[in-house]
Amino acid sequence: MEAYRSKKSMDEIIHFHTLRYRVEQVFIIHRDSGKVLQHVSEFKDESIEEANMFSETLKAIQSSAAHENDPSVNTLQLGNHTVWVEQGSQLMLAGVIRGTPSYELRQVFKKTLTNIENDYREEINHFQDDATPFKACDDILKSCLKVEYGKKDTSLKPLWFVSGIILLVVCLWGFFSIRNAILWNSYIDRLNHAQGIVVTKHERHGNHYYVSGLRDPLAIDPVRLMAEYHIDSNDVTAEWEPYFALHEGIISKRAREILDAPETVSFRNRNGTLYVSGLASNSWIESARKKASLIPGVIRLKEENLFDINASELFLARVSVQLEPPQSVYMTFDDGTLTLSGSASHQWINEMRQKVRKIPGIVHVNDHNLVDVDVSELALLKERIEGHIFLFRVGGAIPVPNQDPMIRSLSQEISQLNDIINKVGSGHIEIVGHTDNSGSEKANLKLSQQRAEKVLSLLRKTGTNTRYLTAIGVGDKEPLRRSSSSIDREMNRSVTFRVLFH
Q1: Per-domain residue ranges of the chain
Q2: Where's it found, cell-wise (predicted)?
């Protein structure tokens, strides 16, 4: 069977069982998430799912060791296999080794880990659960799949062959057994911390599990939670007795359900007092006052900023106090929706959007007709600046006469743009030099760059803040006019402007 899997001759298989050591699997693991970034194996059918399972087991064993004041686990025993672990600043390299490895192998692991962390520094720093960029390190990892043979003893070949199979089976059994135990314990720990669930008993018998306890009907569903921990619900016998939990979050959910509360109403519970805020009809408010005592865990109901939805003007007045809108903003409120129109600064609009989230009774905000005056001013300045065309004489970076007014106008507009752009984000202006098509490509690129830098110099002389200005030359690659008339060539001997926002 092993010969079939590895596609080697029987003699090679027997030789394999006389080895001193052999690295069978190597993993690169992200330390914070435990995610396997890449692994190589002598076994052709090794799956990435099994690799991730090994990572979870390894991470759990390391966490356990660290808890017992052992700051680093660099050697683990899994059945008759040894796991060597090298710790890097952000990655771990783990090798599953059969036999007794030499000291030189440890140096190979260290060097490989250092090379990967150096070569993939940017990918590691921006890692977001996508291991695709690390596929390229496959060849580096394969250098760790070392093997060292001892002297052949043909009399022991059959014994080694059988022993190897037994060891492999035991190792795999141990791995899956440990993994399943860790996942089950993690699942029970999650239940113990869930609101509305009390675990009174849990057991494991081989591959079957048993759990029992108390569960509030509004608590998380334990069966749905099993999928997160790769537990088959068919392998679990669960017995839950219903009860009413007194956690604040559960009581608030139960109050919303029993009182049939609208979206515009919010609840919070503290020490048996149910605080109600937001907007509701007068009939609902009266009904809530009567039914509150029927809610398990609620001793009294207290109306905290609870308004009759028909008295929206009073509610709107309170909202206005909190938002402090400028006179240019008009607000209306209807059925949980706050509608704003008019105009306001970019800063006020952003602050308003943050504040309304904390105001009970407001379910939706409609600000489609609210004009951001800063963004509008930016758009106008962008149009003005990009409308300027600064012309040059033939063959050089000497401007056409009588363009000083344009430079002064540009300076003022750029200063205004700099004042506003910091309020709404970031951006910069490209000063783009152009040429006609009469010269060579190399000469045109150089000349267009000189023309752009000339305009940048003229703006700097006027006192313009040129921090966000960049001079670039494009030669004749971006002509303003496509035809070859004298007027068109004159327009192409120019500098234009591009305003870019981030």
Answers
A1: 1-18+156-245, 19-150, 248-308, 312-374, 387-501
A2: Cell outer membrane
